[in-house]
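ingest -> validate -> predict -> emit
validate: passed (alphabet ok, no gaps, 808 aa)
predict: started
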Amino acid sequence: MISAATCFAQKIVMPPIFKLKKLSTPVNNKLITNNRFHHLDDSISISMINGVCKNRSLVVTKNDLQTADKDNNAKAKTNTEPLLTLHGNILYNFNYRSYIDTPFKQYGMIQHMVQSYVNGDVAGKYPFRAIFTYRGSNSPYFSNNSDISIQYRQTDMLEKVKSDLKKDADSLVDKNLLVNPSVKYNETHLNGIKDSVPALNKNMDPRLKKLYNQYDSLYAIYEQNREKLEALESKLDNKDPLQSLIEAQEDSLYKKPAVPDSLTDSLSQLKNMWGSAKNGEFLKKLETDTAAVTKHIDSTNVDSSLAKAKLVQDSIQKLQKRVTDAQDKILSFQRKLSDSVSLMKRQISLLHDPESTSDYIDKNDTTERNRLTKVQKILLSVDQIGIGRSWINYSELTVKNISLNGLNIEMNPGKLYMAGAVGSVNNQFRDFVLNNNSSTKQSVKLIRVGIGKKNKNNLIFTVYGGRKALLSTTGLGDSSSGTQKIIGASLAATVVVTKNTSVTGEFARSSYDNIYDPSQTGKGLFGRVINFSLRTNEAWNLKFQSIYPRTNTKIDGSYTKMGAAFESFTIYASNVKQDAYLLHVNQLLWKKKLIIDASIKKNDFNSPLTAPGYSNTAVFKSLQVSLAIPRYPFVSIGYYPTSQLFVGSGNVLYQSWYNTLNTIVSYSYKMAKLNMSTNAVYTKFYNNQTDTSFAYFDATTFTLTHNVYWEPFVFQGNLTVTDQQNIHLVTVGPLVTYKYKNILTLTGGITWSRLNSVKTLWGGTAGAGILLKNIGTIQLNYEKVHLPAYNGTLMPVDMGRITFNKVF
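emit:
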């Protein structure tokens, strides 16, 4: 006997369309499923099924109201991309220094900077980057300006396409395809719910449709055998087949055979009719035969019951094996599906250029939704587009590493290469020194056309021109620093020798108004460019790069030869005949734990402020060795050139070069259950006061820092020793940082300094950082230090900084 008790909780009563979701053990809950007046998205149904012995069970189900309209609206919302999506940050930085002396001397300098980086996309398919910058100060030397830059980069588009492909791959792992078959069977049969797999329509991804068909065919076999199995089990009246067999055997042993009523009545009649003695033997024989018949009948019935039980038992075992096999095939299909999707995502991550990405889509993607649009295909052939302030870098002898305020575009559709740029150029190419009153108006125009791929075999012709501030050997104060019109052309070719080796050669010619050769005065600029009898206005460049994976070696180098009359927007010196070379080697040894980086270069005019007479004879060498072994200290030793800006006589700005030795030792470890780190830095400047204005001439500095991490505190100890002419300074100071979650950070410390063993100086630092929810992060910092001055004394300097950062 079975009874049912059901409890419902809901707000209103109405007959909606619903779908019952299983939250606990499923049963045949027809009482709930047939009552359509008690199912809402806010309803919870609790049913107790009471049966004999162990058949009592409790079922808790939640019923979601899901109409076709709701499903369609949700899908429409999911598939609709917003027209414009923006992410980025806004940064405000306020800096104060009571005194500076490099490269200009000034007291009470204040500088404000507002900058915003924005990464966005249009309609979810076209990414771009925008940068807004404003800089202002009270300095008469530094310019106040604002820049806007809007950029498109091919790498961003590639990452966007790859991200969409990965999402598409993830969509193949539909949750309905990963449902355990036994769970799905219980939901669809025991709870009486229809299959929740979405209908296969013409708009569905063909790959997903194919996977659904595979899953459905496997599940149909599982379902068919499972239904047969349950049907057989129900025939045994819900008894175990083995138990039924045992009961049949018990009946044969303990139950008395029953004689059929028809045979008993017949014997009784015969006894009445044939009562004579002569008939006694016949009756006796008849009784014996009847008992045999009865015994045969009973034995036949028992054997038939046993055979039937054994047959059912064998059938159940076979069906159980079929069900298990069918379930294993479905689970194997699901594992292979997940593995194949992971493999697809790994293959997508390895796509590195538009060609390989397009090939992958053509071979693997048949979804119209994720096929590239015409605009995407065009943009994938564009390397970059810049509007406003941007850095451009085209070739060694034309335009390289300059800050352009204008428009530039570079694209490489198929075998055709094209590029163009037009706009103004910062004073001295980098407007970080002179103010607006001192700056000169420079401009550049460039057109490049070629065949081949930019990073592969190619042949590119370039024409460039504009106005440029030509620098003389006497510095910026000379009258020749005014702008002059220049024009030039170059032909460059790149040959990929092997997969890891390429060589590029470039030949260029140029001219400008006040040409070095007086005989050319008055002739047209472009006429001088194509006049090959004039050799002083031409330049050559040859560069190569090679990687040897087997030996973990990278080698690159270049050689440049320029005539005295050659001009471009790459070099800065004028009227200087020069040759320059560079050789650089990077070697990994000892299973990539030891890194050796060495180079030698001559006449590398990579600064607009380098005095040509100084660099014309300079050969710079650099060597850096780094050793990184896990669980051991990191060690790096380097010897390389360094530079500093300084102002000479007549307010002429120079850039001074000298060699530096730098040694770094860093070690992170654990002691007494505390995490610690120790860093030591030793620096020596190899120069003298006659060839530089750098305050640290022929100086050495040693710094030792020790950190102890004891959450939420970080304790730091600092020791600095500086030794140079007339200055021997020892500085010691502790620093403590407290951090509360990611909300609040407090920092404080003091410094004690001893100058030349006779004078004691005190300084310190204090800072705070706070995260304001939905507003941003504010950081405050103040520091009082003593810096060496030209007169051999220490100058007290107060420095302050306020920073606000908002991420959106």
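Residues 545 and 556 are 4 Å apart (CA to CA).
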